[in-house]
């Protein structure tokens, strides 16, 4: 697939997902729980958006694979796989908070090559891959985006969705070593936070417990904008798990040292 073809099709997928999600946002929505021992919400909007994306992918590229949060994995016969989260931040969605997004990622022979993240209620859309990251707000012009320079961790703005989500052994303590040093820490945002990083609004995102559909669509945007995304161990974040994203490699290295002290 060429970059232009990929980009145009990803926008079609985002438009289809938005048509499925927006009628349900801030409505009298029924919420189901996926888990018995915790709260992991899912709604008709999550499922409708993923179904809309799946229908377009398989009608247009029948050899492509697809990994979605709600309906699992369909293995393709070709080299491409779409990795999608129809509503990243369903807790925000059911609370009427416009920080949820649709995350659309594309892997080629297993590696993330393109991503698009859409917040249709606010009107923000971010996409990138192949060395160029862009964003648009509503009907305004598309613009190139870049991460911002941050030379010292003490000057950084850090986001995580919720400290309580850092539930693996020792994860919260390791995260707090970084939060204690930064200038400002903010909570909430899910995938939206990574886009703010790519656009130069914040400097760090640190999370854990992520799935591939949470992060594959984010990696190409951040890297194309000049940032870096790895695991807390400093290796690939392609499969999720512990994830740290930074706009400046100097801050990334400093945060990694604290996470692994």
From TrEMBL:
Lineage, top-rank taxon, reads Bacteria
Q: Which CDD domains match?
A: Bacterial_IMPase_like_1 (cd01641)
Task: Cite the entry's keywords alphabetically.
Answer: Amino-acid biosynthesis, Histidine biosynthesis, Hydrolase, Magnesium, Metal-binding
Which pathway does it take part in? Amino-acid biosynthesis; L-histidine biosynthesis; L-histidine from 5-phospho-alpha-D-ribose 1-diphosphate: step 8/9
Positions that bind Mg(2+): 69, 85, 87-88, 214
Look up the EC number in the record and give it. 3.1.3.15
Essential cofactor(s): Mg(2+)
Say yes or no: keyword Transport present: no
Do you know which PROSITE patterns this protein is assigned to?
A: IMP_1
Work out whether the entry's keyword set contains Metal-binding: yes
Could you tell me which Pfam families the record lists for this protein?
Answer: Inositol_P
InterPro entries, sorted? His_9_proposed (IPR011809), Inositol_monoP_metal-BS (IPR020583), Inositol_monophosphatase-like (IPR000760)
Mention one GO molecular function: histidinol-phosphatase activity
Tell me which Gene Ontology terms the entry assigns under biological process: inositol metabolic process; L-histidine biosynthetic process; signal transduction
Q: What catalytic activity does the UniProt entry give for this protein? A: L-histidinol phosphate + H2O = L-histidinol + phosphate
**Family note:** Belongs to the inositol monophosphatase superfamily.
Spell out the protein name for this chain.
Histidinol-phosphatase
Q: Which organism's genome codes for this protein? A: Microbaculum marinum
Gene name, per UniProt, is hisN
